[in-house]
Write a structure and sequence with these properties.
Blueprint: E1 2-5, H1 11-19, E2 23-26, H2 37-46, E3 50-53, E4 69-71
Parallel strand pairs: 1-2, 1-3, 3-4
Length: 86
């Protein structure tokens, strides 16, 4: 699966997804870090990636055609990774 990780998702989550064999683009540490939400959304659509974020603002795109949005709520943001199981 092609996945785009927003900078608000723990890095451990991105690493776990890579280890599971997914094609993961983590925005952190790239020239795209800090870009506007609409630009991030456009990038996800152009590259046909599932967007994983904690930003509830992306819910506005739910009725459009896209590769997927996963909006997660974290108890302690950016402290620990999201538990991922196959």
């Amino acid at each position: 699966m092609n996945i785009l990780i927003d900078e608000n998702i723990p890095w451990m989550t991105a690493r776990a997804l890579v280890e599971m064999g997914h094609d993961v683009l983590d925005i952190r540490g790239t020239a795209y870090e800090g870009i506007a939400d609409d630009q991030l959304w456009d990038m996800a659509q152009q590259e046909r990636r599932l967007l994983i974020t904690t930003d509830k603002g992306f819910a506005q795109y739910r009725d459009s055609s896209h590769s997927g949005i996963l909006i997660v709520r974290l108890r302690q943001p950016n402290r620990f990774g999201i538990v991922i199981s196959e």
